[in-house]
């Protein structure tokens, strides 16, 4: 509570004992003097903690930026120089400066110095000239056209569908090794169901479970050829489509094209539905199309997006290679990203219709269409990414704490799909119908740390740790397979030039129980090398100057598309290569190329989150928690700066900016419209 408000309350309480001599008043004054420093100290400590958290985020990003040049040449943090110190200080100042500017702007404090009076007069005179007036009229026409052309979801859907139409018609489909493995996996299972004998023969033969690989101790007694490595529902859908394609056309190609076309339409729908929610706030309009039934428009919180904001966000989706190539890329991350955007939009509707913002103080009921969208988006997220259930469960807990009155929405649209889909998969694994994904997939950081030590300082591995690891890994092969940007070779993923560092054929569950102990011993004996392995595997996600390890254009002209297809490779073959190369060339341009990289949007999202912490927008932060969790997924992912992992954050970034702008307008309105004795929202502790 504000100090002035506290002083007023104390004086009022003491007025009952006031005497003509003023003794009671004097006592009240002493009491006020005693309380004000205490409250000031608490407020200062809370503000310091918030700025400390924001500063920590800036420090982490500055560290990632500073170590980038070291790892570009496969160096070490031990090679830190004055140049790296300069990179660190400059980037930290830049990141912290952005947070400060965001906070100052949100609190209606001056950012730029005022223009001189003479300059203002010249600008006014220029605005009154005929050419400028003509430009203003043209700009006003463009503004009206943009607003009118984007005021309904179906208009936004058509804009995206038409704007992206060249992608599926000329590029047809885009994919890497994963969808081919899923098709192969389903094919083997289908043959097994049909009674075709496909025994597991010999040490040097590979079934799908050996390519990932999946440890044999995870196999049931009667092995199946279906796994949850790439999400069983998605594997069955992709595999069934390619199986039908082979039956009808003799190859997988038609199936790939059909799957990409379906994802393309789904992507346009998800982005249009979410853009409509953020641009036009349709959930605040009454069903009869009349005026808004709440007073939020007076504060700026419910102000529809302007023409420029709409244009910039749509331009990103229509032009940025991240979004364009993701529409037809058959890998789990784009599908998760587009469903996440859809899910994110419904969360915004829930956020904007909560009780505190409604005139009657009651949360608005989520309409049936939005409830169905919420549940459907949750289902697609759950079938496309295994980590989705962690995100959804945490959001359920936060929602039940912050919005208890609408608990039935969260139970039916979030909890029920999670129980049915994730619980169903768990039951299928336990019953032996499918094989679980190998938990080694989640140990990327640990694997990289062990492998880097094995490569750079094998003598530094304690004998006890080597003994514990012997049944699990071949340390010599780990050292040979180590690549600082990617943990897949270390865990023997893939079939080309396979390094058998992970002994998946013979390792047991008891052996794996000793893994963490061995890893801790190695890290304790080699802390610098372990730190290098950690940073080298994840710094690129938070370093805007780092080029992606694998960008989205990889899927457009991969060898799996260009060389290993039946007829897709002959459809616009050179055009496909030219489009991918154009995206790479654009991404290589200093500064302007950053717009095509996911780490720019990840970094800016983190800075906006830091500003929200300082501004104490706790309910907004609770809604944005999934974006932070996705950053954790990036850090633990097998590869560094893998752009498909950044797609959800990049797709939501424009909507995040729009939300920050609206809430800043609302806080300014609140500050301007307060009664004289009301506490300042910039100093009141939540």
TrEMBL record:
Keyword match Iron: no
Keyword Transmembrane: yes
Transmembrane domains' residue ranges: 51-73, 85-103, 153-177, 231-248, 254-275, 311-328, 334-350, 371-401, 407-429, 621-639, 645-661
Keyword annotations: Membrane, Transmembrane, Transmembrane helix
Protein name: Uncharacterized protein
